[in-house]
Design goal:
By secondary structure, the chain is an all-alpha fold. The protein is built from five helices and no strands. Helices cover 76% and strands 0% of the residues.
Length: 123
């Protein structure tokens, strides 16, 4: 009976070591996965902030609405624009907003950029 007890203790030690190693490995993998997801989210937010910055800089420099639809910035921004803004740019039908000064197309695009900032939780 004494030998059997020693084997049980040895077996229990081996089992505990294996379980500890498996759990430790799983915790490490989970930690790396969580860290990767956080890093990915930060990079995505940084990319979106950079897009918003570039769009605004473009609109602040000598905006020409007749040339705008042929630019790389417009191609990048187009999928994110509202239907009203797209129609105003592409069909020459402008949805007027009373009380706004300056270039109407530029104002519509800036409004869409502000909307995106909120949707993307950048502000």
């Amino acid at each position: 009976m004494h030998i059997f007890t020693q084997i049980d203790a040895a077996t229990a030690t081996v089992i505990a070591a294996i379980v500890g190693a498996v759990v430790g490995g799983l915790v490490t993998l989970l930690g790396q996965w969580i860290h990767g997801r956080i890093k990915q989210k930060r990079e995505k937010l940084a990319y979106k902030r950079d897009m918003i910055r570039r769009w605004r800089e473009f609109l602040d420099r000598n905006f020409d609405q007749t040339e705008f639809s042929g630019t790389a910035i417009y191609s990048e921004l187009r999928p994110h624009l509202s239907t009203d803004t797209l129609q105003s740019i592409e069909s020459n039908r402008i949805a007027l907003r009373v009380g706004r000064g300056g270039n109407v197309i530029r104002s519509l695009v800036l409004d869409d950029i502000a909307r995106l900032e909120k949707e993307w939780d950048l502000i």
